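Entry 14. Two folds queued back to back today. First construct below, sequence then structure tokens.
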Amino acid sequence: MIRNNKLYQHLSKEAQKVAEHICDIYHNDDVCIGDLLGALTTADIPDSDSLTIEDWHYVYMTLMSHIEGDHFFRSINDDEPQDYENEK
């Protein structure tokens, strides 16, 4: 369940709804998540007009973490990479 994902907990309410909607489409379709994300437009997703580029970035990270098991890291000023899920 996507609601148990650590990154999901940090999304805005609007971004959570979008992530849930995309996850529902994914689970009811026979296509990989990358192809699905590449094919969707904001017209396909209710209440997505208010999301910023940053919101969309976090929605992507949440979906890829939940569905593919991806881990995201960041490094600031060449410091050691930090696991994004453990950081927040």
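Second construct, same run, same settings:
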Amino acid sequence: MSSRGINKVILVGNLGQDPEIRYLPTGGSVATLSLATSDSWRDKQTGDTREKTEWHRVVIFGKLAEIAAEYLQKGAQVYIEGQLQTRKWQDNQGQDRYSTEVVVNVNGTMQMLGSRGDAKQVATQLAGHKPEQKPQLPQSTKTKKERESLPAAQPAALLEEEKMGWGDEIPF
């Protein structure tokens, strides 16, 4: 075991909204997901079943981001393996704010579970639950065709994926 510690997060949950994708100036892709996980238990006093839903902000980089944006939709069940990361940023009033996210990069995993029909059914169930709104980074306003014509510059994470032999293939 490493003396530096282990930072690994595994989640299985359902998307609360369609993935948001944006593109870095270098051409890399970044997808942001709102993932709901639920825990249920029986209340000892009343005997009623209780449920608590946690919302997780997931940020996916590289080809997995493109796959998530293309194939995932609100309600889809997904397996995520990544690392916790806390970002510091300033709001409009200049106050420091922090946002903890699960980051999925070249070392992480995103796997779609269930079927598209399941996603639509779960989306209906999630309609009453809204994730906490967090500030969004600026979104790209380029059309899909404009994004496809971006220069071929790639961030290190994308280059690392190609070294691993994924190329244009889906890594699962």
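Quick look at the second one. The longest helix spans residues 116-126. The first strand starts at residue 9 and ends at 15.
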